[in-house]
Each structure stands twice: as structure tokens, then as C-alpha cells.
Write a structure and sequence with these properties.
This protein has about 170 residues and is of the alpha+beta class. The protein contains four helices and nine strands; from the N terminus they run H-E-E-E-E-E-H-E-E-H-E-E-H.
């Protein structure tokens, strides 16, 4: 993005853009930044709201990280889920930390497979082995998941037989 085009965005969008790309400059080249108007979002009081699409190295659109404003709150979508954060330093830090986990394949998309909830998807934080085990052994789960990671390196189908966790997370 050219420096002179950032001026068209409102202050929250400018802060979001600056914070994310200062912390993760390697993502800026692959980011498509446009006005939120193009996707039906409202403007900020002092400029356009930004809509930022950061493509996954896999090329799969469903793995893109999308940053936008929702009622003035910085928001992030990855796969089937999204979060909203406060438009302050703490909220911006939360967004950056989540993006870091996504691009490091720590937070992945997990789709339920071979169950009555096929294709139900959520995020898994692979560093939280307790919640992963709880989810896989839930009475509502088949115990079988298809993991999709940002880079594709953690992709695969996993079930309870893959526990302990090193088969899934790669941790030793």
C-alpha cells in the first residue's frame, strides 16, 4: 500500500494498519487493503474504514486473515470465526498476538468430520493441549477433526488415536 493512501482511512483504521504492519512487516506485501465501503461496511467519523485481506500462503481463500472494523471495533476473521477487540492499545495488541499465532500455525482451523456436526469449524490453539483433548473427547464430538493451518504444515485429519498431542502439534 502506498503511504499517501493511508490518509483516506479513519483514525482507528490507520492505527490498525500501522500497528499490524509495524509488528508483522512481512505480511504487508501480501495484504490487499481497501475501503470497507467495498464490502458494505460503514465509514469512520474521520474517514473510510479499512478492510484488509491477508492471503494465506496456501492460496485457499478460507484461510485468509481479514481485518475490518465492526461498529468501530477492530475485528479479525480467520476461517469460520471472528473476534472483536477494543479500539485501544490492548485491543490492537490482542489482534497482533492472534495474527502471530495464526501465521506460526499455533491457532488453526479445526473442522469436525465424521459426525452429525460435519463441517462445524472453530479455532484450536494447539499450544493449549488441555482444551484440545476436551474438545476431542466431548460427547458432542466424533473425536475426529480436519485441521487447516495458515501455512498448510499442520493440515491433516486427526482423531483420538493421535493423542498424545505431539502427533497433532508437532511438540516433543
Amino acid at each position: 500500500m502506498k503511504d499517501n493512501t493511508i490518509d483516506q482511512f479513519g483514525s482507528i483504521s490507520r492505527t490498525l494498519i500501522a500497528t499490524v504492519f509495524a509488528a508483522l512487516p512481512e505480511l504487508e506485501a501480501g495484504a490487499a487493503i481497501s475501503s470497507g465501503r467495498e464490502v458494505g461496511q460503514g465509514d469512520e467519523s474521520d474517514g473510510f474504514s479499512a478492510y484488509i485481506n491477508i492471503a494465506s500462503p496456501t492460496g485457499e481463500p478460507g484461510r485468509s486473515i481479514v481485518l475490518f472494523l465492526s461498529n468501530g471495533d477492530p475485528s479479525l476473521t480467520y476461517g469460520p470465526c471472528h473476534i472483536h477487540c477494543a479500539p485501544d492499545d490492548e485491543g490492537m495488541t490482542e489482534i497482533v498476538n492472534l495474527i502471530q499465532k495464526i501465521i506460526m500455525d499455533v491457532v488453526v482451523i479445526a473442522e469436525e468430520i465424521q459426525s452429525k456436526y460435519d463441517n462445524y469449524a472453530d479455532w484450536f490453539d494447539l499450544s493449549d493441549t488441555q482444551s484440545l483433548a476436551e474438545e476431542m473427547t466431548s460427547p458432542y464430538s466424533s473425536g475426529k477433526f480436519r485441521l487447516k493451518s495458515w501455512t498448510g504444515t499442520k493440515d491433516g485429519d486427526f482423531d483420538l488415536s493421535d493423542l498424545p498431542y505431539d502427533a497433532i502439534t508437532g511438540a516433543r
